[in-house]
Write a structure and sequence with these properties.
The chain has three helices and six strands; from the N terminus they run E-E-E-E-H-H-E-E-H. It has helices at about 70-80, 85-95, 115-125; strands spanning about 15-20, 20-25, 35-40, 45-50, 105, 110-115. A six-stranded mixed beta sheet has the order 1-2-3-4-5-6. Strand 1 and strand 2 form a beta hairpin. The termini are far apart.
């Protein structure tokens, strides 16, 4: 059996090298869990964004977002209900805007590529979130 080492991730994130590949842990606290992190691969320029960007989709939906405006209604209710803090959301957006991203890959729904990466960040930044939003 291999010797496995566990190390906590600092609140401000961190970096780890796995099999020669560097990945970064980007704080996403309170989006929608308090100790949440997203994983960024700077070589592939992919951000694995957990529930940020999630959408309620049909199983046969395309892999990538094609028409951003058409996709908004599939994301809006989820983000307003399950993302409790505009401050946390905007902190995450500021961190993510510093990264060189070609793909944002949420765990539910479609992948954002190309100009839809920026469209998604702009849309989310303008969206009021939290349980009091209707």
């Amino acid at each position: 059996m291999e010797n496995i080492e566990y190390a906590p991730i600092a609140d401000e994130g961190g970096t780890i090298v796995l099999n020669g590949v560097e990945v970064r842990f980007i704080p996403a606290h309170y989006l929608h869990a308090s100790g949440n992190y997203h994983v960024y691969d700077p070589k592939a320029k992919i951000l694995m964004s957990g529930d940020v960007g999630a959408a309620l989709e049909a199983p046969e939906a395309p892999l990538e977002v094609e028409d951003f405006e058409e996709h908004i209604p599939k994301m809006k209710g989820f983000h307003q209900r399950w993302m409790p803090s505009n401050k946390a959301k905007n902190d995450w957006i500021a961190r993510v805007r510093e990264l060189d991203i070609e793909m944002i890959c949420p765990q539910h729904g479609r992948i954002f590529t190309g100009e839809n990466v920026g469209k998604f960040l702009n849309w989310l930044e303008a969206l009021e979130v939290g349980v009091a939003v209707r």
